[in-house]
Design brief:
Strand order of the largest sheet: 5-6-7-3-8-9
Distance between the termini: 61 Å
Oligomer: single chain
Pfam family, one: Wzt_C
Structural class: alpha/beta
Helix content: 10-25%
Largest sheet: 6 strands, mixed
Number of strands: 18
GO molecular function: ATP binding
Organism: Paenibacillus odorifer
Order of helices and strands: EHEEHEEHHHEHEHEEHEEEEEEEEE
CATH class of the largest domain: Alpha Beta
Protein name: Teichoic acid ABC transporter ATP-binding protein
Number of domains: 2
Shape: globular
Keywords: ATP-binding, Nucleotide-binding, Translocase, Transport
CATH topology of the largest domain: Rossmann fold
CATH superfamily of the largest domain: P-loop containing nucleotide triphosphate hydrolases
Strand content: 25-35%
Length: 405
């Protein structure tokens, strides 16, 4: 074993009892009768994580993701197998985990630091940066039992990423919190990654995994289904998720020529967590022929002085949400206006290669290379393609025929 985290053939199983009394009856039964059912949460996981890796962990609820992270952090012990950790771990597993609800936020910062092996003097040096990052104001000196889930997330993240860990484990922490907080967290995680910190990142937002992580692991029913390059594993996982739910594909889709959430005057929202919004999306028409030109105008507003790394993405789907194509301005190195005000960009497909059918467009505003979503409009525009019969399938591919004999 030579990685910063080495896991060999880990199994974690639980005994499930129908009634609390069954546990006692099993313990005293003279013939060792079983009153439990065994549930295997992880079944033979083997994984090696190298120093500096950012690994996304994917899987449906109940697949074993959180169990694996708890084994790595030592919260749980394996039923069998070996885990070797070569570094200091900082983890955000569940909101409130590791916090004493009767202590204030400040006292819990010291408590968590001491649990990681730091002296009080060392934590005195770090507490200013932690409090600034958490940004929860006077609540830092209130008992954490009165905190909202967002405050818990802010404080937990602030502590975890400001104690210089060798390994940072984040389990769905970014699901709680506004876009501003997510941006700050991602920026800090990027900084840690650039310094060689190993990151294990669990998120149901698979695009975050694709864009932030260099590797990914997909866990299915307690086993590793796939591992490797993050983009490839995410594509496999999304394909599985898409086609394992085909029974929901008969939803009625309402066609729209354009979508608008328009403001006559530019007004900055009173909610400071709203950084940018899509205010209008228009398409040049809603009935096309194959090879027609498609023009989509996206109007958006920026409420910050500037949003570094702002990008627009346009995604094309079928009505049953099969993903066809999804470029964005960051990937194509197009810089869009990112300063306060109202702006408009145009997305053009010069020659639409799709064949007959109904199609939908999603439009999103993101920053941080697409990791943090600022605003997203699903099925914001729909359109039809109709043709006289000249080919079959979903997309027209340029081709030629040759007579060889």
């Amino acid at each position: 074993m030579d990685g910063i985290i080495d896991i060999k053939n880990i199994v974690k199983s639980y005994k499930l009892y129908d009634k609390p009394m069954d546990r006692f009856k099993e313990a005293i039964h003279p013939f060792k009768k079983n009153y439990h059912k065994e549930f295997v949460a992880l079944n033979g996981i083997t994984l090696s994580v190298e120093k500096g890796d950012a690994i996304g962990i994917l899987g449906k609820n109940g697949s074993g993701k959180s169990t694996l992270l708890k084994l790595i952090t030592g919260v749980l012990t394996p039923t069998s197998g070996e885990i070797e950790i070569n570094g200091k771990i900082s983890a955000i597993l569940e909101l409130g985990a590791g916090f004493n609800p009767e202590y204030t936020g400040r006292e819990n910062i010291y408590l968590n630091g001491l649990m990681m092996g730091y002296t009080r003097e060392k934590m005195d040096e770090k507490i200013g940066a932690i409090i600034d990052f958490a940004d929860i104001g006077v609540f830092i000196d209130q008992a954490v039992k009165v905190y909202s889930s967002g405050m818990f997330a802010r404080l937990a993240f602030a502590v975890s990423i400001n104690v210089e860990p060798d390994i940072l484990i984040v389990d769905e922490a970014l699901a709680v919190g506004d876009a501003r907080f997510q941006t700050k967290c991602i920026d800090k995680m990027k900084e840690l990654k650039s310094k060689g910190t190993t990151i294990l990142f669990v998120s149901h937002a698979s695009e975050q995994v694709k864009r932030f992580c260099n590797k990914a692991v997909w866990i299915k029913n307690g086993r590793i289904e796939a591992e490797g390059d993050s983009s490839e594993v995410v594509d496999l996982y999304e394909d599985y998720m898409r086609y394992s739910n085909l029974e929901n594909s008969d939803d009625v889709i309402e066609l729209k020529e354009s979508a608008e959430v328009s403001h006559d005057d530019f007004v900055i929202p009173s909610n400071p967590d709203i950084l940018s919004l899509i205010t209008k999306v228009n398409i040049n028409k809603n009935k096309f022929k194959t090879f027609d030109e498609v023009e989509v105008e996206v109007e958006y507003e920026v409420y910050e002085k500037t949003i570094p790394g702002l990008l627009v993405g346009v995604a094309l789907y079928t009505p049953d949400r099969e993903y066809i194509f999804g470029p964005n301005t960051h990937l194509e190195k197009v810089k869009i206006p990112d300063i306060r005000g109202r702006h408009k960009v145009k997305y053009v497909i010069p020659s639409l290669p799709l064949l007959g059918g109904t199609y939908q467009l999603d439009v999103g505003l993101f920053n941080n290379e697409g990791i943090v979503c600022l605003d997203y409009k699903q099925d914001v525009v729909s359109f039809n393609i109709t043709n006289k019969y000249f080919s079959e399938g979903l997309v027209y591919i340029n081709h030629k025929w040759e007579i060889l004999n």
